[in-house]
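Subject line: Sequence and fold of a protein, written as structure tokens
Enclosed: The protein record, placed directly beneath this head.
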Amino acid sequence: MSFSINSSSQQTNLYTTQNTQKQDKTLTALSSGSEVSKSSNDAASLAISDKLLALMAGSGQAIQNSNETVGLLQTADGAMAGIEDNTQRIRVLTLQASNDTLDDSDRAGIQKEIDALSTSSQDIASRTTFNGINLLDGSGGSRNDGTFTTQTGASAGETSSVKIADARTMVGRVDVTTQEGRDSALSTIDDGLQSISGSRSNIGSAQNALMSNIRNTSVSQINTADAASKLADVDFAQESANFSQENLLAQSGSFAQSQANSRSASLAGLLG
């Protein structure tokens, strides 16, 4: 005849091991703050959470990209405003020089101021930069044609582009020292002012579009973060309750284990 004196002890050991594993999982969740700190916890949720987190990080970079381009456009627009002011002053001086109350020496003095303003505008167009990149000479951007592209979203193809025209060519030579020069000057200046206005309008529209994109992407980023949080973040109240329950079971298991061991020892003594 054979007897099994350790089946109860083995069963108790099994329950104790299972409960210890549950305790470890709960402690990991509470310490990390994440329900999916291990892929074995919830592989599907982990995959979705990782994808959402990547999208959230990409959205953050897209917002930064857009903000940087807004800064670039503001720099370009400020410089264009300086060129526009110079051109408006040149127009006023041209009108002054067109009046026959002035003699040649008066017009020569006006021409010097016009030339100085033209030189200033050329310098602004040639030297305005952002992070070392020329903005107003038509050579900026990765295509070197004045086109600036911004990665405005977290996915491929989510971009926007704006082309900043070459401001050096917007106002031609103005000569008010001759009648012929004065006759053509106003037309030249007005064409230049129209080009400047068109370029500034283009810059302003692109800036507004980027600001709108920043707002929309920020909202999307918040929603994505919320979705990722619901998948991954631990419910501290629930996990704390689980831990209390598992801890109680562990204590009960230890007591049951000691009782099983005591009975096994007693029975072994009797049979011995």
Observations:
- The longest strand covers residues 147-151.
